[in-house]
């Protein structure tokens, strides 16, 4: 059993209305918006022990390759965690869904070969701290896979994102901040960036605050040793 952190309560995140909305919307986005293809690309080639932060309703679980020996999936929101547990039952790789927050991951240091974040860095309360925790639990040389909403390039949509982040958007959408620059945050947390790319979700249609996305990889440096 994973050790529990005394610093973070079992239900450190509680968004019951948004959680129910997200559970429905995410399935539609996967099936009709092309998000499932990005999940498959995000997880392709992973192996060994993997930690996933903010697993939501467990939609990633179906795409973990057979070379993954175990997935530890943290989800702090109770309703989504229940759905993730149900999804884990049908996964072809072992998945252990546990409560926990990204800012205080309840596992020992250097315990995982890879870490996965998908549509979660926009939502965590303290992104630098969460990324520091991810670096801590990865072994040196371990890989971080990310698929995230990000700040749009240019001024138009980016200005809208910043304005919404300061007002109603986080309140309505479970703490989501669409104006975060997750790639810069990953690099600032001490990861070595690999390949990554920008795209829109959906690729056509209206430009929404959540449309600008990135998908890519980073690594904890091999020279990095836990203090």
Automatic annotation (TrEMBL):
Q: Does the keyword Protein biosynthesis apply?
A: no
From the Swiss-Prot or TrEMBL record, what is one GO molecular function term? methyltransferase activity
Q: Where is the Methyltransferase type domain?
A: 52-145
Q: Which CDD domains match?
A: AdoMet_MTases (cd02440)
Domain of life, per UniProt, equals Bacteria
What span is annotated as the signal peptide, if there is one?
A: none
Keywords, comma-separated and alphabetical: Methyltransferase, Transferase
Choose any GO biological process term that the UniProt entry carries and state it: methylation
| Matches recorded under InterPro entries | Methyltransf_11, SAM-dependent_MTases_sf, Thiol_S-MT
Q: What is this protein called?
A: Class I SAM-dependent methyltransferase
Organism this protein belongs to: Streptomyces chengmaiensis
């Amino acid at each position: 059993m994973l050790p529990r952190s005394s610093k973070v309560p079992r239900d450190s995140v509680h968004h019951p209305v948004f959680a129910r909305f997200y559970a429905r919307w995410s399935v539609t986005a996967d099936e009709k918006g092309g998000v499932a293809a990005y999940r498959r690309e995000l997880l392709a080639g992973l192996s060994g022990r993997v930690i996933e932060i903010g697993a939501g309703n467990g939609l990633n679980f179906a795409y973990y390759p057979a070379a993954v020996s175990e997935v530890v999936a943290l989800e702090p929101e109770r309703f989504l965690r229940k759905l993730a547990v149900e999804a884990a039952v049908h996964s072809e790789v072992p998945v252990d869904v546990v409560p926990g927050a990204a800012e205080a991951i309840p596992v020992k240091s250097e315990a995982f070969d890879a870490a996965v974040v998908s549509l979660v860095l926009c939502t965590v309360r303290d992104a630098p701290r969460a990324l520091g925790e991810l670096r801590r639990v990865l072994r040196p040389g371990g890989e971080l896979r990310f698929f995230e909403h990000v700040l749009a390039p240019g001024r138009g949509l980016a200005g809208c994102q910043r304005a919404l982040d300061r007002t109603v958007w986080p309140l309505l959408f479970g703490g989501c901040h669409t104006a975060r620059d997750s790639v810069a945050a990953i690099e600032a947390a001490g990861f070595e960036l690999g390949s990554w790319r920008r795209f829109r979700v959906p690729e056509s249609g209206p430009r929404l605050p959540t449309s600008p996305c990135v998908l890519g990889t980073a690594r904890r440096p091999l020279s990095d040793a836990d203090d």
